[in-house]
Design a protein that fits this description.
The chain is of the alpha/beta class. The chain contains 19 helices and 18 strands. The strands form 5 sheets. An 8-stranded parallel β-barrel has the order 2-3-4-5-6-7-8-9, surrounded by 7 helices. A 3-stranded antiparallel beta sheet has the order 13-14-15, with helices on one face. A 3-stranded antiparallel beta sheet has the order 16-17-18.
Amino acid sequence: MTDKPAKKERLFLFDTTLRDGQQTTGIDFSLDDKITIARMLDDLGVDYVEGGYPGANPTDTAFFETMRTQNATFTGFGMTRRPGISTSNDPGLKALLDAAGDAICFVAKSWDYHVDVALKTTLEENLACIQDSVMATLGVGKEPLVDLEHFFDGYKANPTYALACAEIAYQSGARWVVLCDTNGGTMPSEVENIVKTVQEKVPGDHLGIHPHNDTDQAVANALAAVRAGVRQIQGTLNGIGERCGNANLTSLIPTLMLKEPYASQFEIGVSSDQLAKLTNTSRAFDEVLNRAPNRHAPYVGAAAFATKAGIHASALLKEPETYEHVPPATVGNTRRVLVSDQAGKSNLLAELGRLGIVVDPKDPRLDDLLAELKEREAAGYSYEGADASLALLAMGRLGTIPDYFKVESYKVGVERRFNAIGKEITVSEAVVKINVDGEILMSVAEGNGPVNALDKSLRKDLGRYQATIADLELVDFKVRILNAGTAAITRVLIESEDTTTGDRWYTVGVSENIVDASFQALTDSIVTKLMRAEGLMLAPAAE
């Protein structure tokens, strides 16, 4: 007779991307952004989506005019009632109670020092504020949560009072009492020990953890809290948040689902199918933020399952488990064997296969291609992050690139002058002459800089290919100086997008002249677009 497997305990994921994540330097969500992100989170399978602070600003107030989730608990955030004011006379509390949503997460002081200097009230009144706010929330049929701000610092300063704050929140009816490492300086061992003590007052299935990442241990602190008994985790997509960020749910979700002891002991609301979309969710979120994804992010980064050392690559291709801690497909990512100056033929064949380029392993041209790649890497090229340029180089050596156009010449000028209203401006002008099917086409364009002017001019008239590149957009432009001095070698990496399909690709150029390096990458980008449009070049499995 076999034993039945032990029933897994439920862990709840509370996403605060739209509230705490909005405090990230350089991030400011529009109403449309918040609606889009809430839909992403709902589709991902998190249990709570904290949407912001209704009544605090016009965007959040508008966001809470209606329900924004179908599956997750839609949650508002705000302060407990103000000291000395009743719940019925507190406009901030009223805005929370009246807003759309299923739950309210209150931020409450739990460090006696902050009660004194921030709230300027008594310790007893602060406890009453927590109690009254929780009870008012229950009175309108919503689920109350209490974030105990600075809990761990407060506990270390005055454990009796910090525990009293947790106990009053629970006894008043809070579904979750959340222990916040607001300053982000608590160590995992401290978190684990303190959480165990708190459970003498509040059971673990009513406790949450809200760690910040100031020591780069927010994920570790969340896991430590879970081991100690906490059953709710608060975090954000891609770990965004104030200062150094919050616990990264994009790392926590796969760790909880794929790593022991968590995978055997717990279950979360994210299914294996939703987990397989995690990489796409992470990158789509970065797209909303208008920033490049972190290529080295755990689980979801383009380099998370990449290797370039020849002996590693050979072993990886034969037995993936040798250098992969989980199968990449479980999180929607893909294995990559990079081509660099450390590459062997196995790397090259694997990368060409990923790019959809079929070649006989015995083809003698492979040795020539590998030698050229290493020469180019020595000269400053880097193809690890420039899949499209690598594909073009390989296909060119294999004789499979159509002769779309030939650049006869280009010229760029920069002029500083005064405009019509007397303001000093700098204008760049580019002239590009190309040959398309024997016809010479010349285009002139102005831009904000030499590269922008070249880009506009090159794409202004491409003859019969003009309609094909109409939805091509230059998304990002990175310049790196490879050695010192004004005559330094410059490497330019360009990210381009097909705005119709959403596909992106990267091209590289290297030269002593930054404009020439940029022009190389630009022309590679256009040829890539034309070849993809004809189905002659496949989008790589992961970029």
